[in-house]
Sequence to fold (467 residues):
Amino acid sequence: MTNVNSGKLSSARFAEATNAFVEVFTASVDFDQRMAHQDIQGSVAHAAMLCKIGVLTEQERDDINSGLAQISGEISRGEFAWSIKQEDVHMNIEARLTDLIGIAGKKLHTGRSRNDQVATDIRLYLRSEINNITGQLTRLQTALLDLAEQHADTIMPGFTHLQVAQPITFGHHLMAWFEMLSRDQERLQDCCKRINIMPLGAAALAGTSYPIDRQMTADLLGFSRPSANSLDSVSDRDFAIEFCAAGSLIMMHLSRFSEELILWSSAQFDFIEIPDAFCTGSSIMPQKKNPDVPELVRGKSGRVTGHLISLLMLMKSQPLAYNKDNQEDKEPLFDTVDTLINCLRAYADMVPHISAKKGNMYNSAKRGFATATDLADYLVRKGMAFRDAHEVVGLAVRLGIESNRDLSEISLPELQQFSSLISHDVFDVLTLEGSIAARKHIGGTAPDIVKAAILTARQNLQPIQHL
Ligand code: ARG
Fold:
């Protein structure tokens, strides 16, 4: 029988050549070549194990290693001739290996399938990218700590409903961002525990009849253990979904930071200056300086959440075990990785250069009756019930609005009209400084507390564990 389709995968089974469009349509090499080095890493470990169990001779294993080393070099130098005919990264590398070393190249796929191979590659890839992402996260956290330290005493209004609520320090606000990123770090580390399990050995779905040593392969690749069920191993993409969920939370956090930076850099707030290097102008309005980086990051948060939803939809109707649908997992995943790294990098570069306009922040806190709660608390300490105090302060605020004065600018006799409990010590609580100094419990905004929080955070900012 003549072979109608030499070069086609599993060609002997097919009587007809693949439709030219279908060949392109089903290929993944254009995007999965990104995992080439992980694919090679997996193959080196697999070959070592095959040699140990006697399926490959030492010579064959050595030939495979040197062939793969050459291929790795070709890929790194951009000299590798990727071919759609070979469908994906796995077949491209295997075909080239066979060109280079002959029969030993054809033996490499013994006891393995592309199904466990691709699952292994994605896990190795994600594991190393998570290290890059956490590295950028740590850079950004460090930048936040440095800025917070500079501004542990810088008073600004704190908001609820985007209305001035109570005075806080800028350092305290920055440390709120820091906390969000700390949880993001934890989520990535936690997700890594489930990523770092080895599917190789599951073969197509049922395992293999060779006496493979999966523990050996897992050890060689730095996985914590081999997976426990072959069907699950080739079909599971939970780990990728989990990663995209953690990534969506990171982007949601960055999007919230962005929103604040955009508001604060507007003429209406005028709290901060974003460095020119992170902004652009307008092609028509010469006066404009637009906060492009925060705006783009806010915009990009949508695509990462979109990728999370794509992966959930991709998986939800798949019967066990592997289905070609899974090939669609890569582009959302890769784009999630790229977006996270780029956005975190832009932020880590930009944050150290943000300057605070302290006077504007201070005046804004003063304009908003931010110490009204402090006056109520003062009255409560003097014996008034909180609801009555709330009422009294409401009257004082109304006088402030009518006479265009902050509470601290209203005279003692005027304040005493509202309650005889008020005496000269009221001004200790009505000033912005008095208000923040009073919040000196764990988690409060008092400058000393903020400084202590920064110190603790710095000590806990662990160097990243590289897997
Ligand atoms: N390119 C494929 C993917 O990304 C590799 C696995 C192919 N397996 C198969 N049975 N067709 O999922």
Observations:
- Residues 28, 32, 88, 114-115, 118, 322, 324, 326-327 surround arginine (CB under 6 Å).
- The beta strands are 155-160, 163-169, 197-198, 225-226, 272-273, 355-356.
- DSSP finds 20 helices and six strands in the chain.
